[in-house]
Design brief:
The chain has two domains: 5-179 and 359-370, Rossmann fold, CATH 3.40.50; 187-355, Glycogen Phosphorylase B (Rossmann fold), CATH 3.40.50. Helix 1 crosses helix 15 (360-370), helix 4 (122-128) packs antiparallel against helix 5 (133-150) and helix 8 packs across helix 13. It starts with a strand and ends in a 14-residue tail after the last helix. The chain is built from 15 helices and 14 strands. The strands form two sheets. Strands 3-4-2-1-5-6-7-8 form an eight-stranded mixed beta sheet, with helices on both faces. Strands 11-10-9-12-13-14 form a six-stranded parallel beta sheet, sandwiched between helices. Strand 1, helix 1 (19-33) and strand 2 (37-44) form a beta-alpha-beta unit. By secondary structure, the chain is α/β, with parallel strands linked by helices.
Amino acid sequence: MNGLKIVRLANFVTPSSGGLRTALDELGRGYREAGHDPVLVVPGAEAADYRTPAGRVVTLPGPVLPGSGGYRVLLGRRRLTALLEELRPDRLEVSDRTSLRWTGEWARRARVPAVMVSHETAHGVLRTWGVPDRAAGIAADRLNSRSAHAFTRIVCTTEWAAREFLRTGATNVVRAPLGVDLLRCHPERRDPRLRARLLRGQDVLLLLCSRLSVEKRPGRALDALAALRAHGGVRVSLVVAGDGPQRAALERRARAERLPVLFLGHIASRDRVAALQASADLVLAPGPAETFGLSALEALACGTPVVASATSALPEVVAGAGLPAADTGDAFAAAVRELLARPEKERRATARERAELYGWDRSVAAFLRAHDVPRRHGAREARA
């Protein structure tokens, strides 16, 4: 392969990761299809080096972050520096806002153009962990200013995500949305038999596809379910696809309150996830700090509308294919009732139409532009 070598660094990636792992995989495939040589470096239980359809993957031993539910991180600058010097990248792409920021300085010394991809807002994450809003804003501004200085470019997937960098005066921020596999995620995945099993005698099926950790606010889905059953007169059940440190507490709550919630855990099969998304009536996306919401976009591609946190970037992505809701169970329940009042055929068609604006081909092209890397002449077009 005669293209440029694009070395990508990412933390907080596990076999059960959701959106980030999907994005890394799809972008890697797209880079290869565009004629370039992607190399992904991630932490793991042990060292490994292997090839995938998305390019070469190198794992370095990394410790598990306590309380994260299994996430590992790349530590040891000397070891990672040695690997970078061995790989000799033409471009560097970093998907970590904190512990890997120093690699931007390494790239500058090595004269390697480098981008940092903002997969979450510093301000939003700090708020979800309980930091007061003003303190979170001050800390986020400092972190974002340093990041913008360290990297050639900051890539943000939505305008919402870009705002916290722009308010610090950063001038190297570019937009590059993520995408969705419009073939795998399709309304034809709807499975009446699967839907009937999951409904368990109810009339409406809600779905939460999320990591069950504090920043995702999965408990909000249970709040909405309880409000619908108590005040809305809606015969509704909730299916939760995902795992994480809050799962046990959520299961205890569902049992104690006798809420009809089915916890499926992590689902490795993307086809099975798509079938779940297509078979649901609505998908809930309560995370208040989401900068894009790949799972929500996949639901739209499957023809399923989304109720999303109004304080996240998802209203920008979902637009009229769903509704924003304030971060309370009652507000989510009200949005669910409003969406259900729309004709089913209309709301499902609107969801699919919105998702069709986000093919992975456009995403790959935008990321390559952020790297100042043109699509190689004659390269096969990335998948829609």
